[in-house]
Amino acid sequence: TCRELINPVYLGVCHLKPPHTVAASIFQRSFRFTRSSRMVHLVSSTQSFKEHISKDQYTIVDFYANWCAPCKAIAPILVRLSNTYASIKFLKVDVDEQSEVAAEEKIKAMPTFVVYRNGQRVDELVGANQDKLEKLVIKYAEIAGKCS
């Protein structure tokens, strides 16, 4: 189930339930790679996920689902943040396509933003809350000491 979006701050969360096959085919891919989103990388395998988060760099991972309205609403904010804070690596993990990663990381709701460094989970934000997401990113960009 999803909570409603409240403007101007996006709030909401979708609980992890496998979508019905027919319903799943209705949803279109909402995240498109463009020049402006070059800083957000889509994870395509468990191995790729582990390689990305194991670096000595703060990595913020957006665990999302294509059928999740709050995930779609917060996606442009993540792109903007990724273009502003180059010291942070940004990833997206589709919980349906990468269910093994989502299960291993104990993702129960989307969107869930998890901060990793050296393969360790260091922080988490559940829900599409623009203000809290911005504060999370700024916090780790400042810690990294390389705000751009």
Automatic annotation (TrEMBL):
- Alphabetic keyword roster: Disulfide bond
Molecular function GO terms recorded = protein-disulfide reductase activity
Domain of life assignment:
Eukaryota
Which positions make up the signal peptide? none
Output the PANTHER family linked to this UniProt entry.
THIOREDOXIN-LIKE PROTEIN 1
Pfam families in the cross-refs: Thioredoxin
| Domain Thioredoxin residues, every copy | 11-142
Protein's UniProt name = Thioredoxin-1
This chain's source organism reads Neolecta irregularis (strain DAH-3)
Report whether ATP-binding shows up as a keyword of the record: no
